[in-house]
Amino acid sequence: MKAVRFHQYGGPEVLRYEEADRPRPAAGQVLVEVAATSFNPVDAAIRAGYLQEVFPVALPHTPGIDVAGTVIELGDGVQGHAVAERVIAYLPMLLGGAAAEFAVVPAELVAPAPTTIPLAEAAALPAAALTAWQALFDHADLRADQRILVNGAGGGVGGFAIQLAKQAGATVLATASARSTEAVRAAGADRIVDYTATAVTTAVTEPVDVVLNLANIGEPDMAALTGLVRSGGTILSTATPAVGDAGRGVRGLGMQLRPDVTQLAAITKKVDTGELRVDVSAGYPLAEIAAVHQLSAAGRIRGKVVLTTTA
């Protein structure tokens, strides 16, 4: 089969689109014919070797923590799934990824794919939507009538976070550059701050209950965001470590995304009922994955980009 692999850590140039052995599902696994995976910033961080101590992947490694595809083979003992089933899954970092024509997936991580969008587009869901869901509800305990600021809302997680927060009854403020403003508005943000033109600390004049930071920012900027949180509120970051304020009872939280097939199935249902919109900004064939990593390094990716196994 064709697969993307890197045999050493480094820049985008270490990614090879090459022949590899087709995997076989072990007990408790399914073999998926991959329609698409998606690009996530953590893919670039793992490829560059920045996360070796946290995620010591075996080389050569195939990236791609999102998978959308069709089950074509069941490993021993697998129940509740069937050949020809269209599925999505979030793959733990240390597993071989989905940037390949075929991927093995633990059966307990597999959720039905949405039926109302193309299968390849569903690859944009698992990691980004689960991150948004777990950040808002598992960690920040977001409730109706609260105010939340989503900092860096133009990325893949931001659009899902805005939609889910609005459905929970929250008022959503979001920061985004001009390039992402329309997408952030379409997701339902009540107010958008162009951080390239106005400092968020100047634009946001009333305290918020929750800050969800999705951007790599410096410590002074993180401290400034903490200052926007009301006493007893929460600041949560998926990037730069959050800084709380014990004196005011502001919690500073980080998060580690975890697979949760129940949550993923609920997300799929929201897509099929029209409650959750999937915004795919671009699609590329797997053979062009190095170019996608280069675009990310240059800050030229908006929203979710999918990588398909066909041109």
Describe this structure in words.
- The chain has 311 residues and is of the alpha/beta class.
- The strands form three sheets. Strands 3, 4, 5, 6, 7, 14 and 15 form a seven-stranded mixed β-sheet that branches.
- α2 packs across α3.
- It has helices at residues 41-48, 126-139, 156-167, 181-187, 200-203, 219-226, 261-272, 289-297; strands at residues 2-6, 15-19, 29-38, 66-74, 86-90, 102-106, 111-112, 147-151, 171-175, 191-193, 208-213, 229-237, 251-254, 280-285, 304-308.
Descriptive keywords:
seven-stranded mixed sheet, 311 residues, alpha/beta
Summarize it.
The chain has 311 residues and is an alpha/beta fold.
Report, as a whole number of angstroms, the end-to-end distance. Answer: 15 Å
Q: Give the C-alpha Rg.
A: 19 Å
Estimated share of beta-strand residues: 25-35%
Order of helices and strands: EEEHEEEEHEHEHEHEHEEHEHE
DSSP helical segment count: 8
Helicity level, as a percent range? 10-25%
Based on DSSP secondary structure assignment, what is the total number of beta strands? 15
Q: What gross morphology would you assign?
A: globular
Structural class determined from secondary elements: alpha/beta
Low-confidence stretches: none
Calculate the mean pLDDT score and round it.
96
